[in-house]
Design a protein that fits this description.
It is built from one helix and ten strands. By secondary structure, the chain is mostly beta strands. The structure holds dTDP-4-keto-6-deoxyglucose. DTDP-4-keto-6-deoxyglucose binds next to strand 2, strand 3 and strand 8.
């Protein structure tokens, strides 16, 4: 498990009819105010998405249908860690500076993301070398 990346088991309200998961802002499962929701679907086979880090954004990722793998890298020289999401009660909370890449999307996969901020291009770091430099500079502060 990486610092700033946490698997969250979402509380499913199951009964004979099936399962239901409710997510609320500022709960133990969503520890931030949700300002934006987006979802990724109909991905091209073999595609890799993401390939960036965020400066401030906090996000909870849930693969609500199918499966995918989220590769997380702290930029500190340690090996990246792969988190597989393959059931709707599994969440991955990513906070702080983490380089993320989403891959191995199954056919029909839908990746739902709850985000703490509105869409802001200036929050993205899309160059891996710049990301590593910023991680190192933060360590020296
Ligand atoms: C992240 C991973 C998990 C918008 O207009 N509004 C939005 O809120 C988002 C997220 C994207 N867009 C536009 C920008 C691009 O034209 O949608 C297009 C695809 O976005 P992007 O290439 O950034 O998508 P991914 O899958 O590489 O990354 C996304 C999020 O951007 C990112 O924050 O952490 O999913």
């Amino acid at each position: 498990m990486l610092q700033n990346v946490q698997r969250i088991k979402l509380d499913s309200k199951g009964d004979a009819r099936g399962q239901l998961i409710a997510l609320e802002t500022f709960s133990s499962q969503v520890p931030f105010e949700v300002k934006r929701v987006y979802y990724i679907f109909d991905t091209t086979p073999g595609t890799v998405r993401g390939k960036h880090a965020h400066k401030v954004l906090r996000q909870l990722l849930i693969c609500v249908s199918g499966s995918c793998v989220i590769r997380c890298d702290k930029g500190d020289g340690a090996e990246p860690v792969d988190y597989s999401l393959d059931w709707p009660d599994q969440g991955l909370l990513i906070e702080g500076m983490v380089w993320r890449e989403m891959h191995n999307f199954s056919k029909g996969a839908v990746l739902l993301v709850l985000a703490s901020e509105h869409y802001e291009l200036s929050d993205y770091i899309r160059d891996y070398d710049v990301f590593v430099k910023e991680v190192n500079e933060a360590k020296e502060r």
